[in-house]
Amino acid sequence: MAIARTVRPLVLIYGTVETSRELRKKPENGGDIYATEFTVKQPGGALLSYSIYANSSAPHPKIGSFVAAECSIEESRNFGASLSYERPGENALDLIASTLTAAK
Q1: 3-class SS letters over 55-83
Q2: In this predicted structure, what is the pLDDT of residue 18?
Q3: Which pLDDT tens digit goes with each residue over 29-38?
Q4: pTM of the model
Q5: What residues contact residue 10 under an 8 Å CB cut-off, 6+ apart?
Q6: Taking Cα atoms as reference points, which of 66, 36, 67 lies closest to residue 53?
Q7: Three-state DSSP state, 39
Q8: Cα–Cα distance between 12 and 31 in angstroms, integer?
Q9: Residue 32: how many CA atoms within 13 Å on its side-chain side?
Q10: What is the pLDDT of residue 6?
Q11: pLDDT in tens, 74-94
C-alpha cells in the first residue's frame, strides 16, 4: 500500500536573467501580486522560467545578471509543470562539489 504524499524534486538552474513579470490573481480574487516570474537564458540558448512567491524574502535578480537557483518542480493538471525558487544555488553547488570530492 502506497503512502500518499507530495514529492517536490529539486533542480539546479543557472543562466542570465532575460525577463521578469509580476503574476497576479484574477480580478475577482483581488488582483494582488502573488509571485514574480523570471526567465533565465542558459549558455546553450535554452530558456527556463521560475517563480519567487510574494511571501518569500528571496532577493529578486536584476535583468542581465547571472543567477543560480535551486528550484522545486510542481506539477498540476491545469497548469503543467512549473519551477519555484527554494534557495540560492550556491548551497547545492557546494554539496555537489564536496560529494564528488569524497567519492574519489
Answers
A1: CCCCCCCCCCCEEEEEEEEEEECCCEEEE
A2: 98
A3: 778 999 999 9
A4: 0.81
A5: 70, 71, 72, 73, 86, 92
A6: 36
A7: strand
A8: 31
A9: 6
A10: 67
A11: 887 887 889 999 999 988 888
Band of pLDDT at residue 1, cut at 50, 70 and 90: very low
**Residue labelled with grid coordinates 549558455:** 43
> SS3 for 8?
coil
Pairing of strands 47-53, 33-41: antiparallel
**Rounded to an integer, what distance in angstroms lies between the CA atom of residue 10 and that of residue 87?**
10
Beta carbons within 8 Å of 13's beta carbon, 6+ residues apart: 40, 42, 48, 50, 67, 68, 69, 71, 83, 89
Burial of 1 (0-12, 13-18, 19+ CB in 10 A): exposed
